[in-house]
UniProtKB/TrEMBL annotation:
Molecular functions per Gene Ontology: intramolecular phosphotransferase activity; metal ion binding
Cofactor section: Mg(2+)
NCBIfam families: PRK09542.1
InterPro entries: A-D-PHexomutase_a/b/a-I, A-D-PHexomutase_a/b/a-I/II/III, A-D-PHexomutase_a/b/a-II, A-D-PHexomutase_a/b/a-III, A-D-PHexomutase_C, A-D-PHexomutase_C_sf, Alpha-D-phosphohexomutase_SF
The keyword Magnesium belongs to this UniProt entry's keyword annotation: yes
Domain Alpha-D-phosphohexomutase C-terminal: 372-445
Annotated family: Belongs to the phosphohexose mutase family.
UniProt keyword terms in alphabetical order: Isomerase, Magnesium, Metal-binding, Phosphoprotein
PANTHER family with a match to the protein in the record: PHOSPHOMANNOMUTASE
Span of domain Alpha-D-phosphohexomutase alpha/beta/alpha: 8-134, 154-253, 261-366
GO BP annotations, alphabetical order: carbohydrate metabolic process
Source species, domain of life: Bacteria
Protein name: Phosphomannomutase/phosphoglucomutase
Length: 451
């Protein structure tokens, strides 16, 4: 039996095309997915990004689905959140072909049940892997059919209906699509709005010729920052490869942290539904739960990862959720993540007042943070235990292990240390009152981590 553990990840399937992923294997994944959801739905919606391998692989997946008697609705080129829209609005299970910001040689599959409900290791992905490893059973009935549908216009209209920008003052916004799917969706979503878009790298190109389509890496937003300052824009927005995450810079070209965006959007959502619940993962700034509570909301802390966020949103009926990684989840969007909707909220908030974005977001940026710092270690458990031992007996220190190791220090500073699931890394995030305090605490922890 093949061992697929190297490409079946916690939330998706991802690997090097031609080495780990090919049409034959993807066809089997399609058939296994059909077996998983056959009792729930007669059809599956499939979309793909701009990578050279995506059309062929998505077609192979469709063959696997139809081989089990289910029909396929193909929506072709789309962003990941556009696929979630299709899954939600049609109430169909879905599959998206993308490797997000990974290099061109990679591709992958993100799957969901009807209503954009995630399929991860604990919610069907392990079963799919086992079925493919053991051999997909043949289906003797009638093969399903494939139809095509364009949902881009409906997706754009749905988003614009959720955020009213018609009364915004005119804005000039630089958008860096990173040669990813934002170049496909942004022109339609923003059509007719009082927003002048200055496009960067809108040409769809899965080789990412200008920079990696991962805006969380500071080196990938340098061009955006320069262009915002050059043209005197009100803000800049960068999308990742499959355009489900967005990153914002202000009129000075300075990054606005995803925690500040989470707090800003949370306040707007709470204005529509006072007293609502807002989910935040444990690496977002402690300013997020503070601001949510100050505006009458109920903050709920979760582990990192979209499956945990979405599960907690379903359990609590939360109106919104945000992560430090610039994933933003909306109850009005089937609890799925959509960077485009978050961007519309930021621009609406900016356009409703006369001040610059830097002034608007200042109230939502209360603390200094390190960002994620990775350390390669030979023994994750031993190094984490050493850090825990170093802080456990200090007066006033609080420790929890909801997700890795979180240490709260007297005076408000804190850090989280988490192991990577796929690499021999420990990931450190630190927050404190100011930059000097962040750097001092970071140095203290890294001395222990790196031995």
């Amino acid at each position: 039996m093949p061992d697929l553990s190297g490409i079946v990840k916690a939330y998706d399937i991802r690997g090097v095309v031609g080495e780990q992923l090919d049409a034959s294997l993807v066809r089997d994944f399609g058939a296994a997915f059909a077996l998983l959801i056959k009792a729930e739905s007669p059809s599956v919606v499939i979309g793909h990004d701009m990578r050279d391998s995506s059309p062929q692989l998505s077609a192979a997946f469709a063959e696997g689905v139809t081989s089990q008697g289910l029909d396929v609705v193909s929506i072709g080129l789309c962003s990941t959140d556009e696929l979630y829209f299709a899954s939600g609005s049609m109430n169909l299970p879905g599959a998206m072909f993308t490797a997000s910001h990974n290099p061109a040689k990679y591709n992958g599959i993100k799957m969901c049940r009807a209503g954009a409900s995630p399929v991860g290791q604990d919610t069907g992905l392990t079963e799919i892997r086992d079925t493919v490893e053991q051999g997909v059973p043949a289906f003797e009935g009638k093969t399903g059919s494939v139809s095509e549908r364009d949902v881009l216009g409906d997706y754009a209209a749905y988003l614009r209906n959720l955020v009213d920008l018609t009364h915004s003052r005119p804005l000039k916004i630089v958008v860096d699509a990173g040669n990813g799917m934002g170049g496909h969706t942004v022109p339609t979503v923003f059509a007719g709005l009082p927003i002048e878009i200055v496009p960067m790298y809108f040409e769809l190109d899965g080789t990412f010729p200008n920079h990696e389509a991962n805006p969380l890496d500071p080196s990938n937003i340098v061009d955006l920052q320069a262009k915002v300052r050059e043209v005197g824009a009100d803000a800049g927005v960068a999308f990742d490869g499959d355009a489900d995450r967005c990153f914002v810079v202000d009129e000075r070209g300075e990054p606005v942290s995803p925690s500040a965006i989470t707090a800003l959007v949370a306040v707007r959502e709470l204005a529509k539904e006072p007293g609502g619940t807002v989910i935040h993962n444990l690496i977002t700034s402690k300013g997020v739960p503070e601001i949510v509570a100050e505006h009458g909301g109920k903050p709920v802390r979760t582990r990192v990862g979209h499956s945990f966020i979405k599960a907690e949103m379903a359990r609590t009926g939360a109106i919104f959720g945000g992560e430090h990684s610039a994933h933003y989840y909306f109850r009005d969007f089937w609890r799925a993540d959509t960077g485009m909707l978050a961007a519309l909220h930021v621009l609406a908030a900016l356009g409703e007042q006369d001040g610059p974005l830097s002034a608007l977001t200042q109230d939502f940026s209360r603390y200094a943070a390190s960002g994620e710092i990775n350390s390669t270690v030979t023994d994750q458990v031993a190094r984490m235990l050493a850090v825990k031992d170093a802080y456990a007996d200090k007066p006033g220190v609080e420790i929890d292990e909801l997700d890795g190791l979180t240490v709260q220090l007297p005076g408000g500073a804190w850090f989280n240390l988490r192991p990577s699931n796929t690499e021999p890394l420990l990931r450190l995030n630190v927050e404190a009152a100011d930059r000097a305090a962040v750097e001092a605490l970071t140095d203290d922890v890294l001395v222990i981590v790196r031995g």
